[in-house]
Amino acid sequence: MMIRPATIGDLDAIMRLERASFPSDAWSEAMMREELRSPHSRYVVWEEAARLLGYAGLRAVAGARDGDVQTIAVAESARGRGQGRMLLRTLIAAAHERGVRDLFLEVRADNPVAQELYRSEGFAETGRRPRYYQPDDVDAIVMTLDVAGWAAARGTESAASPDPTSQDRANPAASGEESANSAQTCEHPAGGWCT
Question: Where is this region: Disordered (predicted)?
């Protein structure tokens, strides 16, 4: 198992997983490409046996107080093994390294598995957005995490493995760097989560 920074070369595989994970509200390829290239985004992918099985994205301007978990998706065949949690912890660690204090996300009200994952990592419900997810008319639950509190509770080294999204590292997707596994990719809309 390997979690590594996503690159533009991952786009096709990310989009396949995006469409499979979020059939009614998947992001467009153009939106994902923009996210992967943004200097304010950190996207990671999970690979196993040269197959992309998950991805996750964070939007956090270096030095800003707030950040947003944009998406997490895990292939249906690979769920239930804790990899969604590892992807989430990798994003939280990246947010901590960027100086984010409060990390936000939106999660579908009809996704109790994801809600429980977020609660177990310290996210708390702070609001609702009625009928946020379209065309399904599903509410979004807004959740927030105190990043410094999360890091202190776990120790600075326990987030995931070494964080491949460190702010000191250039965004490989922004530079056009290709992945060795360019046939696979993943992406999603703000707050959508598969675990």
Answer: 155-195
